[in-house]
Protein 1
Amino acid sequence: MKQFLNFINGEFVATGRTFEKRAPANNQVIGQVHEAGQAEVDAAVAAGRAALKGEWGRMSVVRRAELLHAVADEINRRFDEFLAAELADTGKPHSLASHIDIPRGAANFKVFADIVKNVPTESFQMTTPDGGTAISYAARSPLGVIGVICPWNLPLLLMTWKVGPALACGNTVIVKPSEETPATATLLGEVMNAVGIPKGVYQVLHGFGPGSAGEFITRHPGINGITFTGETRTGEAIMAAAAKGVRPVSFELGGKNAGIVFADADFDKAVAGITRSAFENCGQVCLGTERVYVQRPIFEKFVQALKDKAESLKIGPSELPGVGLGPLISAEHKAKVLGYYAQAVEQGATVVTGGGVPDMPGEYAQGHFVQPTIWTGLPETASVIREEIFGPCCHIAPFDTEEEAIALANATDYGLATTVWTQNLGTAHRVANAIEVGLCWVNSWFLRDLRTAFGGAKASGIGREGGVHSLEFYTETKNIMIRL
Ligand code: NAD
Ligand code: 6OD
């Protein structure tokens, strides 16, 4: 049985307190995860602080960047191992993990190493009150030991999206992967040792949130900042923990994202785009579209086309050729999603397609598969329109005017992402500017340029990461003024 150990100060550490990791596709136990407690958190924080004072703290940015390139190269060299680990943990389709999760997991190190190496800081010259001259310049230093608390939906990608810039800026990190997906963060420990990242720079502690590693990390006074991706409610708990000591937080939280399709959109591209945004990764993408608004002249045709697409998705385990929809992550999450499927019916939805559990052969009958599901006919107050489900489902409603579409999209506490489909440039710009989100895609979805700002408005997050924006969180900027 695979053992998922903690990675502390360059060593793999067993604790003897274990919990099971089960495969989403068949619910079989695939490993034992060693839960970290307060003692392991204390040890990791001490090692992280020592590394800041050692070779890592003295290292030039050029050398750090070289090492991070080596990390990316080593992930790519061991691509198949990372892929196998991610597939075993998540059950997602092979094509998805091999094209998105693992390549981005490696790229996150190279991109931020290059950004940090090449981005200048500001400098000003001024005349002093007595007619002299003073110059100011900004100097960046690392924040310190960063707690990186991660979700399970894109485990390697979302973890390295934070670890890459944190290390590029000279910090040390303590990663708490989701209890559902311990594998790739652990494997990355081997990579760090192999390429010569000093001990204590990258560390991994396994466990849960409250009363476990997550809470112990976020409460620890030796943690200088916390970067978190996960549910908004969890963010509230972490923010309360971070308040003690006034530690900064960077939060990427939940969403209830709208897709808006205008009648003038390229119809086939819009259908393909919303198929991805509603069903990719079995709907377990924070940027996913669970509310779709379609302009009335094409409403019926669009609903039929999306139904056809949903019904053509092949459901199955990672390795099934052509699979488009894998399982949900866990039995608990399956119960939550099916609970929403039931509520939609109770609240009067027309179920266009899906709404239940597919017939799966053999061992996969025990897996966490659900049908891709489309509803129409619900009032905007319905729970499946208001609350984040994080499953392969969406409600489609018609709209008449641009103003109505904007108002519908904005009528939520969340503000993460929107995808807008139109061929009218004016409509695209007006709508994109009026939507209250951190990310607006036009005629596209989840298209990424890592130099750009990424994050959520309203209850979907605090702060922005990506490009130079990551530097704002992962460094302290000091202004140095010199009177000449
Ligand atoms: P979650 O909030 O349940 O858990 C995330 C992590 O937080 C896990 O590692 C968990 O163990 C830990 N945790 C839980 N309680 C904690 C506490 N009190 N203190 C410290 N750590 C704690 O989220 P999840 O179910 O893993 O992920 C799904 C959620 O993440 C969805 O809401 C989704 O929208 C969101 N998400 C957002 C983004 C984004 O970029 N905005 C990206 C991916 C996922
Ligand atoms: O692409 C990224 O950098 C990113 N943070 C994606 C988030 C996806 C949410 O599920």
Protein 2
Amino acid sequence: MHKMTEKNLKDAFSGESEAHMKYLIFSDIAEREGKPNVARLFRAVAEAEKAHAAHHLRLIGGIADTGENLKEALSGETFEVEEMYLAYDAVAKLQDEKAAQRSIDYALKAEKIHADMYKKASDKVGKGEDIEIDKIYVCTICGHTREGSALDRCPVCGAGSDKFKEF
Ligand code: FE2
Ligand code: FE2
Ligand code: FE2
């Protein structure tokens, strides 16, 4: 593929990914505002943007089998934990950005867990097996992720058990 087309598809993948995520978040807001049909529209268009993103990602060689995908996912989470969010946190502290520090802290704490989970999954899939995993709970406020049972309170942000989503 020509360099310029590849670069354009990378940019388009970023744009579509961002739109997908924004629309899902906007959908939640519309739901909360009692506008379920707008919420549904946002979810539908988000799905379309995901399809666009998937095509672009495939063409730029960003999709492989699950073994490779787990390695890629692990590497992303590890980068966030060991470099990105640590550096962002340092800057936010330096600039006394309290809300940003909290936002970064929520992410950093969850990414550590994600990296651990992906590491275990990657080892298993490397042996040609699927993982054995219990129910997974995610705090929809801070992203805290845990396997097993729901908690009364999120250990990171203090949200109640009703804020956990089960997978
Ligand atoms: Fe699109
Ligand atoms: Fe993560
Ligand atoms: Fe939380």
